[in-house]
Amino acid sequence: MSDMNQRSATIAVLVENEAGVLARVIGLFSGRGYNIDSLTVAPVDETGRISRITVVTSGTEMVIEQIKAQLDRLVPVHQVSDLTLEGPHLMRELALIKVVGQGDHRVEALRLADAFRARVVDATTESFVFEMTGNAEKIDAFCALMRPLGLAEICRTGAVAIARGTRHIAA
Amino acid sequence: MSAITTPAPATTDLRPGAEVILRALKEQGVEVIFGYPGGSVLPIYDALFQQNAIRHILVRHEQAAVHAAEGYARSTGKVGVVLVTSGPGATNAVTGLVDALMDSIPIICLTGQVPTHLIGNDAFQEADTTGITRPATKHNYLVKKSEDLARVVHEAFHVAKSGRPGPVVIDLPKDILIKPAPYTDAPPPSTPHRSYRPQVEPDAARIQEAVKLLKGAKRPVIYAGGGVINAGPEASRLLGEFTHMANMPCTNTLMGLGAFPASDPHFLGMLGMHGTVEANLAMHGCDVMLNIGARFDDRVTGRLDAFSPGSKKIHADIDPSSINKNVKVDVAIVGDAGRVLAALIEAWKADSTQQDKKALAGWWQRINEWRATNCLAYKQQGPIIKPQHAVKRLFEITRETGRDTIISTEVGQHQMWAAQYFGFDKPNHWLTSGGLGTMGYGLPAAMGAQIAHPDALCIDIAGEASILMNIQEMGTLAQYRLPVKVFILNNEYMGMVRQWQELLHGGRYSESYSAALPDFVKLAESFHAKGLRAENADQLDDVIREMIAHPGPVIADIMVAKDENCFPMIPSGAAHNDMILGPDQEGNARSVTDEGKVLV
């Protein structure tokens, strides 16, 4: 209880890919009052038996330790890894961003998308859908720039993350 | 006569799902199931009818089935098994499941479910049982394929009893109970689970650190909880061995009572909100604390920022998530309480460092001064029975009989008085709802214990309000001739609610009076049991003796002082050294701030 400093944690959780496993993880966070800033999940092994959940959360050091311990004791959880704590890691998010407009706004949107290395994946005479990957800040920045240019809709995956170098986790 | 048997190909080894379940239960050593039938579990009841290996106890309410299984599990160390139907059967069981989860009791609860093709259709008696029980269990399963059935049952037992024990639900759609299913044997105990692998053996380096701290301690205290009981009787023996070897004082939590003998001079009594002065002041003033199998519950710590401020804390627990949850500790040991104690004893012996005997002697002297306050003293004068006196006499008279005595309780003042005045020298003899605080727990729990121990004296120390929450189980006692004794401390109030209203809410006794009570003697008689009543102190011993001597179930209605409060008490939001010792200091509680009042 002594340390009240909050920190963000990106936690990778390898789970058995079985019915209800995501509900268990989410229920744990809501039931115990922990924050979920983002959460992604998909099967990651060749047989589809193991899924990897990436959850970004925040709290005091004591709360984050609790979150990890609580996740680890769920029966279908294989491994819990605090990427933030364990060293350098990459974090990426995918976003699809729809911008609707005409004239100068359209040209400006395209110019900025190029600068941000966002790809045009759909276009009509009045709209673009941009696809971009990057960390959350980069996507936030791009969306902010698109707002006055006709930003209509945003769809984001939430973060996925992996350690740099040879370090790796497996079930 | 012609033989109609044909050579059995491998596939005819398939049996209806219900039979496969019973076979798996048998292989897991199950002898008793507590249950209540209904539409979706009829195939299991049909299979039960056609066998003799497993006994079924028909309860009167599904909540009681789970509490009975808890009583069975806690008094034997085995897994308790429950069988209920879908929908209301399952939802009625939820309170019991959460109770078992909070108190770490191994339970398997088989719930019926509508057939797989109807799941999600709002079918008759359908409920999302796995959804509802997900936060109420250690783990749960919905069996959707017959080939998974036997494996899931075996796995459920492993999950329920290993690591930190807990309740496991297996939800069984009716078609799965009828369809032929293959049987698979339980995997050998050494087979690791795919993902679930609780740590049992403590880390040797942590044990060394702990021994170093403990050897250097000038004012040590051992604080042991239900984890020691869950680790089996050998763990309790090792706790005694270590405590004596190290000459340290030992206190138990409510859940841990019996882990250390109450009659041992090293015992400080229970700690916490209604703990003894010596236990709480030892916790407050110690320099090294060894917590084994307890979880720094709010009922134990009181105000966290004033909890044992000057001590180094060692915490051994089988559940890593219990460590550093409420209280930051200096040495964290993950492991089974018995293995931890064995490792501590071994490392203690191997370490040649001498203890500071002089400091220890000084510490014991202070403890004895605290003991001299005699904080559990009460005055039994005149005809009105003090509830404390009733429990104390019950303890003394049962001890005189020399019979193996198992005590359960409901929840409230009577529970605390039972914890304070009934001395437990052995584990597995004290059954109480500690974490969830479930009124209505005691009668079915005593029932479950009595099933497991037919010759033991099983007594539910109850209050007149709590007992009505599962009173229907008197019918179960009658049906199975279970000689459970219900010992009601009847003060005509929800006593603990009344106490808090007196101390914290200006004496406004809002809805805490037990109005329109039944005549418990007649109530007992209507359930084919014996009813007794003690209205004054002269009758108390006779009623207790008659209750014990009667071969069948008894309700003893003990009319006790109506306004007695449970002391010592650490009011909410206060620290261990800020106890109310008795009625003379009740004014102290009135200064409790709103911040304190929000705490339950």
First-to-last CA distance of chain A: 33 Å
Classify the beta-strand content of chain A into a percent band.
35-45%
Determine the mean pLDDT of chain A.
95
Q: How is the biggest beta sheet of chain A arranged?
A: 5 strands, antiparallel
CATH topology of the largest domain in chain B: Rossmann fold
- CATH domain class name of the largest domain in chain A: Alpha Beta
**CATH class of the largest domain in chain B, anyone?**
Alpha Beta
Describe the largest sheet of chain B. 6 strands, parallel
Number of helices, counting only DSSP H or I runs of 4 residues or more of chain A: 5
CATH superfamily of the largest domain in chain B: Thiamin diphosphate (ThDP)-binding fold, Pyr/PP domains
Helix content of chain B: 25-40%
Count of beta strands of chain A: 9
> How much is the radius of gyration of chain B in Å?
25 Å
Which key phrases capture this entry?
heterodimer, A: alpha+beta, 2 domains, four-stranded antiparallel beta sheet, 5 helices, 9 strands, B: 600 residues, alpha/beta, Rossmann fold, 3 domains, six-stranded parallel beta sheet, globular, disordered N terminus
What layout of secondary structure does this protein have?
The complex is a heterodimer of chains A (171) and B (600).
Chain A: E1 6-16, H1 21-31, E2 38-43, E3 50-60, H2 61-72, E4 77-82, H3 83-86, E5 89-100, H4 104-115, E6 119-124, E7 127-134, H5 136-146, E8 151-156, E9 160-163
Antiparallel strand pairs in A: 1-3, 1-4, 2-3, 5-7, 5-8, 5-9, 6-7
Chain B: E1 15-16, H1 17-27, E2 32-35, H2 42-49, E3 55-58, H3 62-76, E4 80-84, H4 88-102, E5 107-113, H5 129-133, E6 139-142, H6 149-161, E7 167-173, H7 174-178, E8 180-181, H8 204-215, E9 220-224, H9 226-230, H10 233-246, E10 250-252, E11 267-270, H11 277-285, E12 288-292, H12 298-301, E13 312-317, E14 331-334, H13 337-350, H14 357-371, H15 387-401, E15 405-409, H16 413-421, E16 430-431, H17 442-452, E17 457-463, H18 474-480, E18 485-490, H19 495-504, H20 520-526, E19 530-534, H21 537-549, E20 554-559, H22 587-590, H23 594-597
Parallel strand pairs in B: 2-3, 2-4, 4-5, 5-7, 6-7, 9-10, 9-12, 10-11, 12-13, 13-14, 15-16, 15-17, 17-18, 18-20, 19-20
Antiparallel strand pairs in B: 1-8
Helix pairs in contact in B: 1-2, 1-6, 3-4, 3-17, 8-13, 10-13, 11-14, 15-16, 15-21
